[in-house]
Amino acid sequence: MLYIGFVMKVLAENYKGIEFIRISKLPEEQRKEIVQALPSDNIIKILREGELLTDCVQSKHYEAWFDQNYKKESRPSQGVVPAAINSIKVNQD
Prior knowledge:
Number of helices: 3
Strand order of the largest sheet: 1-2-4-3
Distance between the termini: 55 Å
Structural class: alpha+beta
Order of helices and strands: EEHEEHH
Number of strands: 4
Radius of gyration: 20 Å
Shape: globular
Strand content: 15-25%
C-alpha cells in the first residue's frame, strides 16, 4: 500500500480489556519511527491464547505518539482563503 500525503492511524486490538497496537502491523514508516520515539518500557508483551506477542504498545501511547507526529500534517492550513472567494461581490439591494 502506498499513501501519498496521508498517514493512516491503525485501529487497536483488544484482548481481555487491554487495547493495544502491534508494532509489526504498523506501516513501515510508523514502525521505524515509533520504535525510536517510545521508551522501551512502553513496548509490552501480551500472552494471547498461548502466543506471546512481544511487540505491543498500549493504544493510548500509540494514539498520543501518532497525534504528536502526524495529526499536524493532516490538518488543513488555517487562514488560507482561495483568491476566488475574496473576489466575489455580493449585491445588497
